[in-house]
Design a protein that fits this description.
Elements (H helix, E strand, L loop, with lengths): L6 H9 L32 E7 L5 H14 L3 E7 L6 H10 L6 E4 L3 H6 L17 H4 L3 E2 L2 E2 L1 E3 L3 E8 H6 L9 H13 L3 E3 L6 H8 L1 H5 L4 H10 L8 H15 L10 H9 L3 E7 L3 H7 L5 E4 L7 H4 L2 E4 L3 E4 L6 H13 L1 H10 L13 H4 L1 H12 L2 E3 L9 H13 L5 H15 L1
Parallel strand pairs: 1-2, 1-3, 8-9, 11-13
Antiparallel strand pairs: 3-12, 4-5, 6-12, 7-9, 7-10, 7-11
Amino acid sequence: MNKKHTIVTASVLAMSLILGACGGGNNAADPNNSGSSNGGGNAGGEQKTVTLFQFKTEIVEGLNELKVEFEKEYPNIKLDIQTVGGGADYDAALKTKFASGDAPDIFSNNGYAKLDMWEERLEDLSDQPWVGDLVPLAAEAITKDSKVYGLPLNLEGFGYIYNKDIFEQVGIASPPRTYSELEAAAKKIQEAGITPFANAYQEWWLVGSQGISNAFANQDDTDAFIAGLNDGTASIAGNEHFKNWAKLMQLTLDYGNRNPLTTDYNTAVSMFANGEAAMTQNGNWAQAMIDGITPDMNIGFLPMALSDDVERSGKVTIGVPVNLVVNKDSDAKEEAKTFLNWLVTSDIGKEYIVKKFMFIPPLTTIQSTPEDMGALAADLQSYIDRGEIFAHNAGKFPDGVAQEFGSVIQEFLAGRVDADKWAENMQAAWDKLK
C-alpha cells in the first residue's frame, strides 16, 4: 500500500464517544525548526546532560541511535539513557533514584494512578508544541485537570498473536472471537501435532498487568468496579468475569507448552516465530523480534475471549504503555523538553517511531503505512476501525498491585491454589495496597 494512512485518525473516530478531547497549548518552541541541524537548545551555553530513565527494553537500540542524531543537532545537550525493564521492578527502581538524590530528568509514567502518585514531581507540559496534535485516546491517561503532564510515546495493543497460516493449514476458516471458538481452535491445532499456545508465564507483567486487564475490561462499568474495590462495595472473589479469566488461563495451560512458569518472553516469542506454536499472548511490540526470526510472517491478533458473549469479550486491548514525563525540579528540564519535542517533530524521530519501533503513533502529525509498522499494528488498526477495543486498565491499579497480582496468578498457574482461592488472594492483594 503506497497511500499514506494516518492511523491515529481512526483512533479518534473509534474513541470519540468515550474519550474527552485534549486541548492544544501555546507554542513554546517552533516545531518547524526541530528537524534542522542548527545546534539549537543551549548552543551558546554550558553543556548539560539529560537523563532518560525508561522501561521499554525493546527500543533501547533505537533510542541509542536517536541519541547520536540528537546530540549532533544539539551538541551542548548530552543524553544519558538508562533502562530498567524486562520484568524488573521499574517503579521500585524509580523510587530509589528519587530517594537517593539521583532523580532522572525524564522518566516513564503509565498515567492514571501513577500520574496521581507522581503529580507533584511533574512539569506541566501543556504549553508544548506537540500537545495540540495528541490523539484523545493517547492523551487521556496523562491528563489531569486539563493539564498534560507527559508525552505519550505510542499506542499499543495486545491479545493473542496467531499464525494465520497454521490456522488455515488445520482448517480453521474464521478466527475465533469467543471462548468456545478459541477452545475448539486449540483442540484442532493440538490434534494436528502443533502446540496451540506458547505461554511465557515466568513474566509477572504478562499476567499481572496485561492479561488480567481483560477481567476488569469485561465488567459492566470498569471504573465503577475499580471504585467499588477501593471502597469495599465490589469484590474480585465471586466475580463472574474473574472466574472466566481463570478458565481462560486453564485453557492455555491445557493446550500450551511445557513448563510455562519457567518460560520467559524471548523463549515464547521464539517458539511462535519458529512455527512451534500457533498462538502467544503478546502485543504489537513483538513485531520486530518476530521479523528478526521469521520475516513476513502471516500473523494477526485474536481477542482473549473470556466468554461466548462476542459483543462483550471479542475485543483486543489498546492503550498507552508509557508517557515520558519531565521532572519539574530538574536543572535540565528545558533541555529535556527540547529532546521530547525533537523526538516527535524531527523527521528522524518520526521515522524511528513508526519504522524502527513499529509504534502506532500517538500524534496526528506522525503518519505511517501498514508496511511501516508491520502486520500486528495493521491488524490492531482494523480492531480500532470496528470499535472492538478495550482500554488497558493496569494503570488504574493501586501502586504495587500489578506485581502482587503477578505472584498470585503464578501461584494459580502452578496449581497450588484453585480458582476460588486464587480470586480470594487477588482480592487480598488489592485490599493490602489500595
